[in-house]
């Protein structure tokens, strides 16, 4: 499969998880090397991981991605994937239930910070 | 609900996830304070988290627990919960598929270490 | 002991460490699940840990809590517990002395970030 | 060598890496203990590490410092050292190339966050 | 103060915390650069941190050091400092009480791993 | 470029960094999914990162890789890449010098653990 296929496969997944709204985002550093950086990040996540589907459906992949992001304290990416979780069909309280499960594993301070991020997106979503 | 209920609720879950085999494990430091340590760890994980079930079934809780443990590099607990995942009905390749999903989020070295731990348990299981 | 006792025990400690001012804080995500999240966080920290007192008095528990929060880079929780440390009777320079001790263990960048957070609270406190 | 030599050695390096502009920065908590904190941080980094030069020149030390800061998610220090990297003669795309190299080792979310910080400094630099 | 004073100051503290038994340990990589590595590690911890004493006595410094080491999952250093805690006058259960306090902050898996390390030293100590 | 090119590009780099000796290593979990796991890890590191060369030569990539691995406490991967560093032409003391540089950034306990791993490989190498 050609590299253009990798990119296409990644973009199809991004459309499915985040709706085509993601296409409006710019790139942090838009030189050739900066564009390579953005492309490799996208392909690693979406062509090499999410696009496999198989024994893990997209809703389950959403929960384990939220877990990984809460564990490493990645605030901006966590908000993005809470949006993805809702758009893939999770209820807001699924995210809260996941975060309760993670308290003993990742500790209270990390989960309080994660909930603060998530709640920002959940409240926005509730208002709509 | 009384504290004895918390303990009972935690132990019922441990039986369900790990089979009653877990009851043969000793305690690292068996003074009154050391026993409190062990009891609080068990109650936090099993009475306060796993026992809630609700919108997350045990098989899903197993995958997000494996994710959290891979993220913090907790080798012994990871092996324990790979055993739990198999006993809850996951196929060995579900664990491998989960770990592929996590490569871009947690990085190659952390996932190679997690796979090395998990494969030890998976090979043992395959031999039976 | 009943669950209502756990909550009462946690709240008594919160009053003692932070003064009843903490009661004015809202909850990040106020559904039933979101309230469970907040209650479990509070009980784990204050009913299961701080309320034990015993061989570690509250002022010592304050210092080890600050250490744990600096180690995991938990900015908001660190500010909260610097306030707690002052209200429990620590001098502002006790925090600075603690942070000097931690430089070789946690590294300069983590401690510079922790000091930046703490100094915000310490300067506020000095102005009063 | 006397302690005043340690301070002088550290300050000479700071001048070389960041230009004397760093001398305008204040100290987070300016009591005697707070000043000790700042001095020890500076001496550990610049008198004990950077000033050794030897088999690692300053440009290489810059790249490994950026790597360490990206790994621990130290946003403010990362911006500071991207400025240092440019002032020591690295091209902006050297930073982007370094960050591409680190994606598989530190994971996409950590590197996206690092690139967001770095790009802020790189765009500022490009505008001049 | 001359560098030889830094070394002497660090070694006096090492004698006090660990008894002169530490002097029998070898160095991991005994070239000139490897010896510099060992010396700088020792001076940062013992001349720059522990030797300050001041508002934090050695027994308190012991508890916050154990906390930092549990937080970063540093098994070998944790065992060393559990030995130090006992030799400075802490009871074995002080360590267990500290670890109970840290469960909600650092999470169950990290503290179970820390207790496993500590219990090895505590059991050895109990046997004497 | 086709996927077979990605694999070939990764393997050429592995030959160059580690000599073809790496080809004797088995795979942790040799099902189709387990082989995918291994292939993706290899391609992310060697086809997407190391093979770019460009403004960062292989010897520099070796140092920043060692830094990332020391930062995340990845013992087995660290030993592998110390072997790679020596085979790419670094002197043993280059590794020790790098580790001295990282003490203030990553903290003493992490670097003592990294040096313990590295020294195992360096002593083996010195014996030959």
Any key phrases for this structure?
globular, 128 residues, homohexamer, mainly alpha
Question: Could you provide a short overview of the structure?
Answer:
The structure is a homohexamer of 128-residue chains. Chain A is built from 6 helices and no strands.
Largest interface: A-B, 32 and 32 residues
- Output the structural class of chain A: mainly alpha
Rg of chain A (CA only): 15 Å
Mean pLDDT of chain A: 95
Helical residues, percent of chain A:
over 70%
pLDDT < 50 stretches of chain A = none
| Strand residues, percent of chain A | under 5%
Label the overall shape of chain A. Answer: globular
User: Main sheet of chain A, how many strands, which sense, barrel?
Assistant: none
Q: Helix count of chain A, per DSSP?
A: 6
Number of strands of chain A: 0
Distance between the termini of chain A: 41 Å
N-to-C series of helices and strands of chain A: HHHHHH
**Could you state the oligomeric state of the chains shown?**
homohexamer
Question: What do these coordinates show?
Answer:
Six copies of one chain form a homohexamer. The first copy, chain A, is 74% helix and 0% strand. The first copy, chain A, is mostly helical and 128 residues long. In chain A, helix 3 (58-72) packs across helix 5 (92-106). The longest helix of chain A is centred in the last third of the chain and has 20 residues, at 108-127. The N and C termini of chain A lie far apart (41 Å). The mean pLDDT of chain A is 95.
């Amino acid at each position: 499969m050609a590299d253009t296929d990798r990119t296409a496969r990644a973009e199809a997944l991004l459309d499915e998880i985040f709706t085509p709204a993601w296409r409006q985002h710019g790139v942090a550093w838009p030189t050739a090397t900066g564009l390579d950086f953005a492309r490799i990040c996208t392909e690693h996540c979406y062509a090499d991981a999410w696009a496999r589907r198989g024994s893990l459906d997209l809703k389950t992949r959403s929960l384990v991605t939220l877990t990984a992001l809460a564990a490493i304290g990645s605030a901006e990416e966590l908000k993005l994937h809470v949006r993805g979780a809702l758009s893939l069909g999770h209820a807001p309280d699924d995210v809260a239930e996941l975060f309760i499960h993670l308290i003993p594993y990742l500790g209270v301070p990390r989960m309080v910070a994660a909930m603060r991020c998530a709640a920002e997106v959940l409240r926005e979503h509730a208002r709509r």
